[in-house]
Amino acid sequence: MAVVRWVSALGVLAETDGEIDVTRRPMPRQGQVYEAARSRIVESSALTAIVGMGYVGFPLACAIVRSGYSVSGFDIDPTKIDALLSGRSYLGEMADAAFQELAESAQFSATMNPDDLKRCDIVVLCVPTPLGENNTPDLRFIIQSTEMVASILKPGMLVVLESTTWPGTTREVMLPILEAGGLRCGVDFFLAYSAERENPGDAVFATASIPKVVGGIDAAALDLACEFYQRVVCEVVPVSSVETAEAAKIVENVYRCVNIALVNELKLAFDKMGIDVWEVIKASATKPFGFQAFWPGPGLGGHCIPIDPFYLSWRARQCGGETRFIELAGEINTAMPMHVVNQICAALGDQVVGSKVLVIGVSYKPNVSDTRETPAAPIIEELQDRGCDVTYHDPHCPVFPMMRRHAIDLSSVPLDAAHLAAADAVLIVTNHDAIDWTIIGDHASLIVDTRNAMAGISVAGRLVKA
């Protein structure tokens, strides 16, 4: 059993390790539909559907299956369904074993037919929440998936949103869609929010070992969602409302966004002073309290940090507030790819047009194949626009994938002496552990390092930190 903490506006009401002390927590009004739903969850006989089998939905499905529930994975991409059923990973080599495990489990099935979800008792939405024009929230995937769930909604069903979004989405957007067919939330079905906290490539924290913050539309939904999740993850942290749970997830990402922007701005300032920002941060981090190290880079990537803070700033404006720190952080981080391009062009001098640039790493973070919102994309496109002949090497991304805002037709080249010697500049964007940094130091005539990857490596040519 997971640790469960009950939190309200008055603070922590109860904390248990193991079985929940039901006498010390707020309980919903009991009803026949609720009691039947709760029994299925407690007995692990509830069938769960995961809508969206990507970087969030897939590991969640694995954790739920391991906890004893049966899971139906739903996705509109037929190639994903085929891969799920055959055990072929589409999330990188690190997930190979998990894909095989899920495909071989009698508790797992995969489908792209909404009718197959009619028999499910719990439906969890793990769909993308991208940005639209002018950094405004784009909820079309939440709306479409909620409409799909509404078409198969049945008495006793628990619906949970895990996608990161602005506070109010669950109640103001999803609830009216689900109730449009006549079923009543809190009586006929139940609605909750519990944001994903996935960190692709993390060797320490996986879905089951990361605490889950849970908020319900009402006490019944909160209770059912907590009963479910406390059997899947190590710790459940219930809060007083879905809005609080939605806000908590955005705050997590805003915290990182603002701090990364701070060190990116410090880097630009320290460059003009002739000070190495990485050495400064490393020295500051020796303080055993009151400081957490964040590191500069070529720009933000991944689905969360470059996107989610704008959801909060948009919502704040809708409510008459402002978020100046968030907007300034966004400006700083968004400008970093162009800063990197300017640095490499300055290092190349008058030989920019026609220069051969070898980019090292195109995923948004080390040791994964995930290229969502990677800063490598705008960097490569801008270098190409300025007349550079760009190639890249990434052991995790053999082919640069199609992206919503970028179309880069490139494949990874070998990292060998010939390619390094032929390059006028080697640009380090992602510092994968699998990269041979020594060979880069030995054969590159110009290295532009955005990650401090060459620290401690002997460099035969010229090194520029960008």
Write the layout of secondary structure elements.
Elements lengths: L2 E6 L2 E7 L14 H11 L4 E5 L5 H10 L3 E5 L3 H9 L9 H9 L3 E4 L10 E4 L14 H13 L5 E4 L7 H11 L10 E4 L18 E5 L2 H11 L5 E4 L3 H32 L3 H8 L23 H11 L5 H25 L7 E5 L15 H10 L3 E5 L23 H6 L2 E4 L8 H7 L2 E4 L12 E4 L1
Parallel strand pairs: 1-10, 3-4, 3-6, 4-5, 6-7, 7-8, 9-10, 11-12, 11-13, 13-14, 14-15
Antiparallel strand pairs: 1-2, 8-9
Helix pairs in contact: 1-7, 3-4, 5-6, 8-10, 8-11, 11-12
Reported by name, the CATH topology of the largest domain is: Rossmann fold
Architecture of the largest domain, according to CATH?
A: 3-Layer(aba) Sandwich
Count all strands and give the number.
15
Portion in strands: 15-25%
Largest sheet: 10 strands, mixed
Distance between the termini: 48 Å
- Assign the CATH superfamily of the largest domain: NAD(P)-binding Rossmann-like Domain
Poorly predicted parts: 6-26
Shape: elongated
> What letter string, H or E per element, gives the SSE order?
EEHEHEHHEEHEHEEHEHHHHEHEHEHEE
Helix share of residues?
Answer: 25-40%
The SS-based structural class is alpha/beta
Integer tally of domains = 2
CATH class call of the largest domain: Alpha Beta
Number of helical regions: 14
Average of per-residue pLDDT values:
92
Task: Round the Cα radius of gyration to an integer and report it.
Answer: 24 Å
